[in-house]
Design goal:
mainly alpha, 5 strands, globular, 47% helix, Arc Repressor Mutant, subunit A, 7% strand, 8 helices, single chain
Length: 201
């Protein structure tokens, strides 16, 4: 495992695995399993927008690339239960050839599209119902900073080091008032034509 992988995420470096995951139903399946634990294709079906048989096909496809696996049988041992191999995943580095780059870009595009409307849904559906103390800590941070490649890597590493103890701790160790918090981190290096000394966008 890469020592910079502080969360213990599954590391995807195979371009074929990236292409396999670059599909809205498969991304939804993996997210559902990572968030809620083992499930059958029938249980997953309503959440991922596919019939149980299609969901089952996608699960087998994901299993072929080591992204999901069989879980312990449930009460109904006739139904196959699946689980995510890890609680999170990351992809890269990829081979420097055109195929590897294209596969990573395809997966990135699908992930950006999948979560593009999440901030809007949060501000319209979730934020109004939050207690004031939670509302004050939520929201958007949009900071522009001038960095070298090495400095950006150091910033990313420092952020993950801070978060890792909370990401990886045992559920039994969470405070009684803990709740899920989505920390969306977009790292968007600018093009050459956007460079100037301004700190904010």
């Amino acid at each position: 495992m890469d020592p910079s992988n502080h969360y213990g995420d599954l590391e995807i470096t195979d371009p074929q695995a990236m292409r396999a995951l670059a599909h809205p139903v498969r991304l939804a399946i993996l997210e559902r399993l990572q968030r809620h634990g083992p499930a059958t294709a029938t249980q997953l079906s309503p959440d991922v927008g596919a019939t149980p048989s299609v969901t089952s096909w996608h699960l087998r496809h994901l299993a072929g690339f080591g992204l999901v696996r069989d879980a312990e049988p449930g009460p109904d041992r006739r139904q196959r239960r699946w689980e995510a191999v890890a609680s999170g995943f990351r992809y890269g580095p990829v081979p420097g050839d055109e195929g590897g780059t294209a596969a990573a870009r395809l997966l990135a595009q699908h992930m950006f599209l999948r979560y593009a409307d999440l901030p809007q849904r949060w501000i319209t559906e979730v934020e109004p119902e939050l207690a004031p103390e939670w509302r004050e800590l939520g929201g958007l941070s949009n900071t522009r900073v001038m960095l070298s490649i090495e400095e950006l890597a150091a910033v990313e590493d420092a952020i993950e080091r801070v978060l890792a103890p909370y990401v990886t701790r045992d559920p039994a160790e969470r405070p009684a008032d803990a709740r899920g918090v989505r920390l969306m981190r977009y790292v968007l290096p600018e093009g050459a034509d956007e460079q100037n000394g301004s700190r904010t966008s």
